[in-house]
Amino acid sequence: MAIFEGIDTIKFEGAKSTNPLAFKFYDKDRVVLGKKMSEHLPFAMAWWHNLCAAGTDMFGRDTAEKSFGAVKGTMEHAKAKVDAGFEFMQKLGIEYFCFHDVDIVPEADDIKETNRRLDEISDYILEKMKGMNIKCLWGTANMFSNPRFMNGAGSTNSADVYCFAAAQVKKALDITVKLGGKGYVFWGGREGYETLLNTDVKFEQENIANLMRMAVEYGRSIGFTGDFYIEPKPKEPMKHQYDFDAATAIGFLRYYGLDKDFKMNIEANHATLAGHTFEHDLRISAINGMLGSIDANQGDYLLGWDTDEFPFDVYTATMCMLEVVNAGGLTGGFNFDAKNRRPSYTFEDMFEAYILGMDTFALGLLNAEKIINDGRIEEFKKQRYASFESGIGKKIREKKTTLEELAAIADEMGAPALPGSGKQEHLEAVINQVLFG
Ligand code: XLS
Ligand code: NI
Ligand code: NI
User: Is 100 marked active-site?
Assistant: First the structure.
């Protein structure tokens, strides 16, 4: 029996359609820049927001009904969520899901019992996956909700809690591999600190790296060939989080020799919390060969926290898709780490949110194609650095110069000419013309 009764498979109806339960722009088989839209945009459902979170915030309880016909906190409910999730993904044509261990089963007091439940539910999920084109994008362990993790997991001050974190990572890896997951995520939920007065930052960072090293060793030993990801975030819940942004996380991975096994999972709302644009963190990851996966959402410039809204900002999606296309695509996918607003509490709202997100990224992709085909932006950028294509500039680019040599050239020169207009307004006008002209 259908859980989302009355909602059919969501179809592409085109930009003129007024049917709220249809795609206006996401046309999965349409070929864009040599590939199908569905190949450019491997979308994923986030188990926690879509099937678990029901609108509770700091000031009020659930607004949405997500029992899916079972008693919450039971294994029947866990299974009902699997049923709901697969029906939801199938109706939307979403091919991937992402999960935390405790999203898919209720956590027991004893980890042995939690693990038994994880075995049971993963059997159930595997059974569901048969004959369906639905796969696991990535798994992770929730090491931030339970009070034992109040001081972090890898960064905790308690060796016992550290063991517990290791046990959760081990099991989450087992389940991810069992479900054929392409990736495994470390989001440093409480890996950070509130005050230096009680914190040994150096030791905590070493311990996090050590946990990651053990995860890589174990993961590879059980046949996990995918990518490990760090998902940077500058703050929230902690005041200072160690994986502040892509640049910080990449430096950390290199320092501890983990850069061969890890890539970035960049979340839009986390990048903006770090004071960057989404595309900035994508570019930093890409130029370091570490653009792995994306948590597709958006924040609110008026609010200073992770509001996890469904992507609606087409300019940002366009800049994102330019980065992704120019980087040759993602090894991971686009996980909607996003939730309905609290007053959007119906099943229709869940579907419309995903339709919004998928259409926004489809528009971003179509726009990226237009910008690339227009060519003016790329050409301007090339011209801007033209002085490094010949003469002394070329020699600098080839790293064959010395400070003395360059200083001697400067001495002869008098004052150098200004470096040429950056033409930002011109370029922004080009973008608008290409998009709306
Ligand atoms: C929270 C994070 C989290 C990760 C997975 O801000 O985005 O949801 O994606 O632990
Ligand atoms: Ni996320
Ligand atoms: Ni987030």
Answer: yes
- pTM exceeding the 0.85 threshold for the entire prediction: yes
Residue from 50, 51, 186, 187 whose mutation best tests the ligand 1 pocket (most atoms within 8 A of CB) = 187
- Between CA 415 and CA 409 the distance in angstroms is 11
The reply to whether 49 belongs to the active site is: no
Residue 8: inside a domain: no
Which residues pair with residue 231 across a beta bridge?
187
Torsion on CA atoms 13, 15, 17, 23, rounded to nearest 10: 50
Q: Pocket around ligand 1: residues whose beta carbon is below 6 Å from it?
A: 100, 140, 185, 187, 231, 233, 267, 295, 306, 337
At 1 the pLDDT is: 77
Within a domain: 146: yes
List of the chain residues with pLDDT < 70? none
**Active-site position among 83, 103, 261, 308:** 103
Q: Would you say residue 280 lies in a domain?
A: yes
Instruction: Tell me, yes or no, whether 364 and 420 share the same domain.
Output: no
Residue 170 has a pLDDT of 99
> Is 250 within 8 Å of 263 (Cβ atoms)?
no
CATH number, domain of 49, equals: 3.20.20.150
Q: Cis link prior to 234 (omega < 30° from 0)?
A: no
Residues 6+ apart with CB under 8 A from 145: 102
The number of domains in the chain is: 2
Q: What is the residue-averaged pLDDT of the chain?
A: 98
Residue-range definition of the domain harbouring residue 428 = 377-436
Secondary structure (3-state) at 151: coil
Structural domain contains residue 16 = no
Same domain, 278 and 399: no
CA angle (45 as vertex; 102, 271 as ends), nearest 5: 90
- Do 119 and 163 sit in the same domain of this protein? yes
Residue whose CA is at the smallest distance from ligand 1 atom 3 = 187
What's the DSSP call for residue 182? S
